[in-house]
Amino acid sequence: MHASSQRAETAGRGKWKVLAAVSAGGALGASARYGVSLFWPSVWGTFAVNVVGCALIGVLMVLVSERHVVTRPLVRPFLGVGVLGGFTTFSTYALDIAGLLERQQAATALAYAAATVVGALGAVWLGASATRRMAGAGP
Q1: Contact call for residues 79 and 27 (beta carbons, < 8 A)
Q2: Hey, CA dihedral for 104, 39, 112, 98, is it positive or negative?
Q3: Cα dist from 111 to 11, 95, 107, 118, whole Å
């Protein structure tokens, strides 16, 4: 990738600040996810994390990309990629499905797989739509 096609916050020496922001945010997000797994150790805890995380991603992307409410260059890498990327866990989702299938709970695995996809996509849409409305513009 040429420097001219890079996002401004990752050009030149800025990439190290972005890497630090993503790393710090990822540590926070993954720690929060781990806390939820201790409190709610089941596939539905993972489901809740993914749906809530996706709703927050919808909110963040509207505030950063559309409304420009947040203009600091490291907010999106820190919160979006770092915190929310570390919080949501689609790798655990895949392992949960495999575990359900190994335990011969195919119906639960199918319901969980479908509910997570529908829930996550719906949550992004709902988070973004609600934020747009609250910020004074339509969907």
Answers
A1: no
A2: negative
A3: 43, 15, 6, 10
Question: Does position 3 have pLDDT exceeding 70, yes or no?
Answer: no
Residues 6+ apart with CB under 8 A from 66: 132
**CA angle centred on 127, ends 72 and 31, rounded to 5°:** 65
* pTM (2 d.p.): 0.83
pLDDT classification of 56: cutoffs 50, 70, 90:
very high
For 131, counting Cβ atoms within 10 Å of its Cβ (0-12 exposed, 13-18 middle, 19+ buried), the class is: buried
Residue type at position 103: R
